[in-house]
Amino acid sequence: MDKTLNLVGRVLLAQIFLLSGLTKITGFAGTQGYMEAMGVPGVLLPLVIAVEVGGGLALLLGWQTRWASLALAGFSIVSAALFHANFTDQMQTIMFMKNLAMAGGLLILATSPVSDTWSLDARRG
Hints:
The protein is mainly alpha-helical. It has 6 helices and no strands.
């Protein structure tokens, strides 16, 4: 059962990053404009997409899970602080807390033993 729950957890965490990254590709100009409006250089968008899609795929496949989890946890915390820190807006407060909750789950995943999971990491030993 632990293997199944670990896999389900990785899939659930991965999907938000994969979908978000792919959406940024299809809405590149709009996302770049939003980033710049929030004071973040739009030139960083390709890096953001690489982190989201690459990290999401790594989680999904269970490849370098510990490092991918740590990177995505950091990404979630930074993006919460940069884009969702308007606590006068209830929706932004919820998005801030969602990002922190995802970071918490990712940090727990980073400490999970990889030998007990269905993943590329477990296959490597």
